[in-house]
Amino acid sequence: MEIRTIAMPADTNPNGDIFGGWVLSQMDIAGGLTAARRAQGRVATVGIDAMTFVRPVGVGDVMCCYGHVEKVGTTSITVAIEAWKVLWFERREVRTLVTEGRFTYVAIDDDGRKRPVDR
Length: 119
Known about the structure:
One of its GO terms (molecular function) is long-chain fatty acyl-CoA hydrolase activity. One of its GO terms (biological process) is acyl-CoA metabolic process. It comes from Thalassobaculum fulvum. InterPro entries: Cytosol_ACT, HOTDOG_ACOT, HotDog_dom_sf, Thioestr_dom. Keywords: Hydrolase. By secondary structure, the protein is of the alpha+beta class. It has one domain (3-107): Roll (Thiol Ester Dehydrase, Chain A), CATH 3.10.129.10. The protein is 17% helix and 47% strand. The chain has one helix and five strands; from the N terminus they run βαββββ. It has one helix at 20-39; strands at 3-6, 43-53, 62-72, 76-89, 92-107. A five-stranded antiparallel beta sheet has the order 1-3-4-5-2, covered by helices on one side. The longest helix is centred in the N-terminal third of the chain and has 20 residues, at 20-39. It is elongated. The two termini are 23 Å apart.
């Protein structure tokens, strides 16, 4: 797991569900952590190849994001990310997939220029 956070009322859309952009930003943070660890340094998001929303997130839901490296290029890293919401029912944890996607990051140096990633 890369991150775990709780959805708050300030993050809702007009329908009362958590705004999809908030979910996407949490996934980007998680993917950035995964990519930075693999790149052993700074990375920048350059693209989202695919994203599918499966279930809404509600206020008070705990959201967990998991990422794993799918592909390493010369300067880029593609990370598959899943976001799950966690609820507690009768003293047991219930996890539900919320969304998944593929994010691409590029390794950058201290000046913000692309740099190679060790394979």
